[in-house]
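User: What would this chain look like folded?
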Amino acid sequence: FRPYRFISSPLILDLSHNKLQVLDSALFSKLQHLSEIKLNHNELETIPDLGSYASNITTLILANNRITRISVEQLRPFLALETLDLSNNNIVDIKANSFPALPLKNLFLNNNRISSLEPGCFTNLSSSLQVLRLNRNRLSTIPAKIFQLPNLQHLELSRNRVRRVEGLTFHGLHALRSLKMQRNSLSRLMDGAFWGLSNMEVLQLDYNNLTEVSKGWLYGLLTLQQLHLGHNAISRIRPDAWEFCQKLSELNLSSNHLSRLEESSFVGLSLLDELHIGNNRVSFIADGAFRGLSNLQMLDLQNNEISWTIEDMNGPFSALDKLKKLFLQGNKIRSVTKKSFSGLDALQHLDLNVSGIFSPGRRLNTSSLLCDCQLKWLPVWVAEQTFLPCVNASCAHPQMLKGRSVFAVSQDEFVCDDFPKPQITVQPETQSALKGSNVTFVCSAASSSDSPMTFAWKKDNEVLNDAEIHNQAHLRVQGGVGGETEVTEYTTTLQLRKVEFSSEGKYQCVISNHFGSSYSTKARLTVNMLPSFTKMPMDLSIRAGATARLECAAVGHPSPQIAWQKDGGTDFPAARERRMHVMPEDDVFFIVDVKTEDIGVYSCTAQNTAGSISANATLTVLETPSFLRPLMDRTVAKGETAVLQCIAGGSPPPRLNWTKDDSPLVVTERHFFAAANQLLIIVDAAEADAGKYTCEMSNALGTERGNVRLAVISNPNCDPGVQGGGGVSAVGGAGSDDDGWTTVGIVIIAVVCCVVGTSLVWVVIIYHTRRRNEDCSVTNTDETNLPADIPSYLSSQGTLADRQDGYIPSESGSSHHYMPSSMSGFYLQPKDMNGKSLDLFSYTFIISGVCLLHFVKELIVSILCFQAVPSTKGPSALTRTLAA
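Assistant: Here's the prediction, encoded as structure tokens.
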């Protein structure tokens, strides 16, 4: 080393590829300007001592030696060390405080046998370390927060054995810009696995076993620009996966298991420039899957199973107006139309190399084109795209154009005289079905070619591989301009048995042959289920002023709507007074501050397109008994009629009981009760009737009492005369008797007249009715069939509804059928106790009899109540007899 002792510039010493096992530090005593020394590919077992000038060395290369451990004492002399390469040694672990406080920026530990990292192993390098490489080791776990290196910018952990990354594993690496973890055995990334990497720009996770992309493990990567996920097992991209990665410019998902690109697969990636999805299993691309990728310039979809996206969709790439490169080679595309590439105004490179249709780049070299009316667009489109100098395309069919360049064929020659490619003639139809029923879709197509035909059915753009399909074919002759042509008509039938809700969707048939594929329109299947109650309203009795709660919930498909009615209508007193609350989410109907006008039958109706059901609940409002009118004391003359009123209110209606002078009331033939004991009528009042009368009303909620005092005073018209005036008294008595008999006579005459008059009227009516029936009858008269009884629940079609046909049970046990009339009411048809309908004559006779009896009763009661002067014993007895 003598020649170098006078060199003052930084010195690089290369001793690599020797068999050095030890070094004498004295050999380096003269190399005070030594800054870099390469000792790789030797046989060193420890970090060598390089003498007093080791403090000047900035780069130490010790790769490919036999070093087994890192010693803090051996590294302490290298005070200026910035790069340390210990790759390809035999180091098995890194213990705490293995490194002294050095200005180390680059630490390379690739291809060792490191299986564990002890906490604090890199602590002394926290202020300087920028690059750390731990590739090709044996790490199976990464302890959380092991890397407390705030200045680290690049971390490499590829080719280890890490299977799972826990949350906060990389917390503390605030300056990290790139992380490489390729070729591990990663299968799970927990939520927050990369949280804290707020400056991350590049994340490489290729060649692992990840199965899905979710926002949970991408949380916190707000500045990420490149994400490499190729060669994993990803089959799903969650809808909100990119919520925290909206600055991505490059996304690589190639060589995974993706079969679907949903509408939400790339939402939020408006800055994406390159998207790689090649070598997957993509066969389904939803409408609008690329919507929002407004800056995309390169799209790689090669080697997938794409067919209908190009053949059947209208402008699948229409949102990519900045796209320059599109790779579609290696798919199952059989035909393209003008609409296939609509919107790709900036396209410069198109690769559609399938069955010789297109070649890479902007070249077109094929001689197998079907030059019919559907290819008119191609020459015009090629010319507009400036592709013409690079195109060599000729027709293969029809025979008259075979071998001719598509640019030599005029627009009038692109005709559809025959149709070797299948043409859909019968489209499948949209249907609705009840759950559990069978459904059939039919689709037909015709073709003039004898090329073998294939049939497929798709649901929501995905092929039904295990569907029950029946195919038929028959020949028919079709006339045309060039004469008659034999055409084969194909019919394919899709049978769906016992459909479930999962059967809903859009169904489409695809009929293909060598010349291309034809797609039918999409027929929608809707599966319905009648509503059924999960919660039914129950009868409710509640005190006035409280809150009534009625529950009602139902299930069905589609989800039924719930509506309420009161007494068959929509008049809710509680609604008018803003006391009613409906809670749709809780399936509860509330009435606050309940009042007696809220009493009634409440009907809950559940309705969907399949039908409707109803359930009823009776609301009863309970009130304590009360006096609706104040009790008034009464004073009557002796012999007059006394009427004591006790008008009661309450719910349920209270029972009334009368007492006199706090003792049970002794009822005689002069005492009458009316209006459910609310009226106490005392005929021919006597002095003994005077006193305190107590009205006691009671129901389930309580009892209320009130007092009425009755005073009976002497009647001067009825008192016997003084002594010496007997003649006058006798005359007066005779006059009273005559008046009494006169009153009774009037009553009897009135009753007889009513009976006779009513009977005559109904005789005439019955006579004319029978005459009309005889005139209108025929000899062979069939028995009129009446509709069967219908259950008496209330069914409605919404909040506003009318009562449906049914029957109303009566209290007597009979039932009344009601039939809707032209008016707003209903006609009642009564039945007898045996259920037989009464004829018109019996019905009118009963009605007239009831009315007559009611009239007579009211007349007699009125006479008795307002008769001012009682008669003698004879007439009075007769009057009481008539009243009874």
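The first strand starts at residue 11 and ends at 14. If you want, I can go into more detail on any region.
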